Amino acid sequence: FTLESHFSKNEALLCCSDWHYGQVSNNIWNEYNVEICKHRVNKLFNTVVNAIKQHGIRTLNIALLGDLINGSIHVSSRVAAEENTCEQLMHVSELLANFINELSVYVDEVNVYSTYGNHARTIQNKDDSLHADNLERIIPWWIRQRLKDNKKIHVIDSDYYEFIYMQICGYNIVCAHGDLERFRDFGVTVNTLFTKKYGKTIDYTFMGDKHHLEAFEQFGIESALVGSLCGTDEYANNKRLYSNPMQTLCVFTPEDGKLCTYNIKL
Fold this sequence. Notes:
About 30% of the residues lie in helices and about 25% in strands. The chain is of the alpha/beta class. Strand 2 and strand 3 form a beta hairpin. The longest helix has 22 residues, at about 35-55. The radius of gyration is 18 Å and the shape is globular.
């Protein structure tokens, strides 16, 4: 037994959710714009690198959980935006590509999984929209092309529609954006679906969309609701819904499953 060989089996999962790149907010709780977004991503990078070093992580799994751009589905989204939707999409894709590329320096392997949120749908009225007709599906396509020469990075397509499925240290994990889900039911719902349809019993679930932090366990399934990078926007402030801007990093081991969680305040 050596410490190095023990750590070599550790993996991490970084959930990147609800960046809402392009959004402008300025309220009593939070200020946010493109430059602040970049500053928070840089802070997130430094914290993740420190955790990678501390836990001896060799494989980093990244789940892009959607609403990475602010989009233009609501009038308020268009008014509270520094860039139009196309600019948001281009710039956040490049920001993510650089972020992932730089993280790959510190690990042996990076697996990138992605789903899409609701803010980048192509039709304003959700009742007239196909859920999968979503501009955010371009983001992993761009990252794959942009980083194709980095052999450490694997951009993995989902075979499960809007759900992300992955296996970390032998544990089955499902992620979704969350706009179609009830958080308290999510673990049992996806476990039933994946058990019946794919023969996979789910151990952990992660979702975003709600812009706040919450954890819940039922029937042995641990579910986590992760925070947003953007923090409290004008809609949330007007309803007195407050939360810290944050992203979530989890460390997994073969023996313990999810060993610890870093809710990284930004």
